[in-house]
Amino acid sequence: MSLRMIVELGGVVGAAELYPDLAPKTCAAVWNALPMRETINHANFSGEEVSFPTLGLMWEKENQLYQCQPGDLGYFVQGPAICIYYGALRVISPGNVFGRITGNLAPIQEMARRSWKEPGIRIVLQRGES
Amino acid sequence: MAEVTTALDTLIARIEAATTTLSAGAAADVARVRQLRGAMGQSFTTTIFAFQQAGTVRDGIAFVASLAEKFPHESWVATVAAEQFRRPVATLTTRYAMRDTAALHTDAAALCAGLSGADLLRLARTMLVYYAFLLRRLRDLLPFYELSVAFEGHRLIAERVAISPTGEGAR
Fold first, then answer.
1. Cβ partners under 8 Å of residue B89, min gap 6
2. Class of CATH domain A4-127
3. Alpha carbons B110 and B106: distance in angstroms, whole number
4. Residue A8 CB coordination number (10 Å)
């Protein structure tokens, strides 16, 4: 089954593909919690990553990766938070990688990068086609 | 046991309500941290130390959650959990004026002795979510971009003129 999610960051709209084969529990938990609306914070330590806190959607570790690709989406279990790994990164504490932004990534990366200087950028995650 | 469960449900409902308040940006604890003044009347050190302290407390709660998950039938976990919840109360109250957060810790610590491993895990995880939102709000008080620019500039100047913080090495 293919699950797609619409990612809107600071007014820039992109599309993400979820990975139910690699992270079935995380995908289900995130999917069931959509839509989500928050403001992002830029990472202070790990590199090109933005995130926002969530309720405890699930607590299991699943498909945790230290080597992420630009656009990968993670769910940080201990936090809990949803993370967008948008560029160069040194992962310190891995999250459950449950999908990747595949559509319109470049402007989303630019907006994520801006959030380091301009806090308060809003994010909306909502269901796309399934 | 039913009374303890009822008390736990009540406390968890309070923590969740406090999390909702944090999410809405209306928490009194965060407002009080914002008003704190440290040495020389500035608020940078009090704010960043409050942020750091909350992160340390969060790590302690994650430790409790991990113990409760790995040793669900060991009664000593409740003793450790009670101490872990109690330990930061004085610091949160006296240094950072985070009285509402400290009150949640006090009540959690008082409840731990009668809780099962599953209940301890539920309590710890509810607090972890609370701390995710608390840390986010405290972080929002800190302009990390501007601070990083100022810090790198200060470091560059210090290295160029080779002056240590104590003045040694000045030339």
1. B102, B105, B106, B109
2. mainly beta
3. 6
4. 17
Is the CB of residue A1 less than 8 Å away from at least one CB of chain B?
no
Checking if the pLDDT of B171 tops 50, the result is no
Q: How far is A79 from chain B (nearest CA, A)?
A: 5
Cα distance between residue A6 and residue A16, in whole Å:
6
Query: A80 and B133: CB-CB below 8 Å?
Result: no
**Mind telling me how many Å the CA of B101 is from chain A's nearest CA?**
17
DSSP state string for B17-56: HHHHHHHTT--HHHHHHHH---GGG-SHHHHHHHHHHHHH
Q: Is there a contact between B136 and A56 if contact means CB atoms under 8 Å apart?
A: no
* Contact residues for B75 (Cβ-Cβ < 8 A; gap 6+): none
Cα–Cα distance between B24 and B16 in angstroms, integer? 12
Res B163 pLDDT > 60: no
Q: Determine phi and psi for B162, rounding to 5 degrees.
A: 55, 45
Contact B128 A79 (CB under 8 A): yes
Q: What is the mean pLDDT of the segment spanning A101-109? A: 97
Chain A residue with CA closest to B142: the answer is A119
Q: Report CB contact under 8 Å: B125, A56.
A: yes
State percent of chain A over pLDDT 70.
Answer: 98
**CA–CA separation, A9 and A107 (whole Å):** 9
